Amino acid sequence: MNKSPIFSVIMPVYNSTIYLEEAIKSIAKQNFKDLEVIIIEEEAEDGKDIGSTDGTFELAGDLLKNYALAGKAVKRPSSSPKGAGSCRNYGCRIANGQFLAFLDSDDLWLPDHISNIYKYFEEYGQEMGAYCAGGIIFDGVKELGKMPHYGFPCIGLQDISEQLLSGGNFIPTQSLCVRKEVFLMTNGFHELLKCYEDWWFVLQLSKKTKFYINPDTLCRIRVRGDGLSRTNDTENGKIKMSSWMFTDMLRLRGFAVKSGFFRGLEIKVLDNYITGFFVLFLSDLICGRVWIEVGRIFKAMYTAGRLGFPLWPRIWRKVYFNVVKRAVKKLKVNLNLN
């Protein structure tokens, strides 16, 4: 009878042949070897196979064999929504490991990443249910900065629920690892969100367990032109990304209210963060008279539907006062100059 691995590496893939071998190689180079790799590819929609068109699925199976890694490449069931969140959830459910470690197909781990995780899980036992470390952002050639960009708000074994509600997500999915038993206490990555499905997941985790926050840099996070983490993009790509961001942030708020995970005061803290996010963008755009972008954000807010309506009055009231305040300040400066 085969012994279950200690770690399961969960990797969603889609048209990933260019970068996949680098990611797999970084897993094979781990100092800690007791692991399996579960690679999940997009499968079907309406009964039609819409998986990768560049041979990613076949390559994934070959790479696992070539690097002598336990595990398998599977396709996401057609009954599940499309997207990385859905693929991760499916991979977690079929994984055999005690711990679930996440890596995207274009990112890399440093060799002692898994051994560091195991060390802290052993040290803190059941009190610790989740772990993350810092990462370096790179474009495949040079390093561009650190993730999270502003540093972790806390380090060590911590209850991070308040920080996640008041300041947004600071947990890099590429370095995240959770006990499978804790994962099963949550609803996993939200499968209806294009953005923030990872924030939703760690928000749930933070209500169930403590995180160990390791400030050391143990993963490399690739920025590329065709991904959601891109920095250089076409104008249309930026607009499309912003629409997802604003719509899904309001949807996440609605899901948090409905979930029962969070108390009234916690929802108010989340509301403050989301309101501030919208007010900052809208105030800048209105003062700059970028009306097309204002319209796109308004449409994104409307698309969120009833999940976002409770925040509308608060957001627009604050935007109004913020814009008036800036206009008065600008007028005073102009009068002084004259």
From TrEMBL:
Keywords: Transferase. Gene3D superfamilies: Spore Coat Polysaccharide Biosynthesis Protein SpsA, Chain A. It comes from the Bacteria. InterPro entries: Glyco_trans_2-like, Nucleotide-diphossugar_trans. Residues 8-127 form the Glycosyltransferase 2-like domain. Coiled coil: none annotated. The keyword Cytoplasm does not apply. Pfam families: Glycos_transf_2. The keyword Cytoplasm does not apply. One of its GO terms (molecular function) is hexosyltransferase activity. This is Glycosyltransferase family 2 protein.
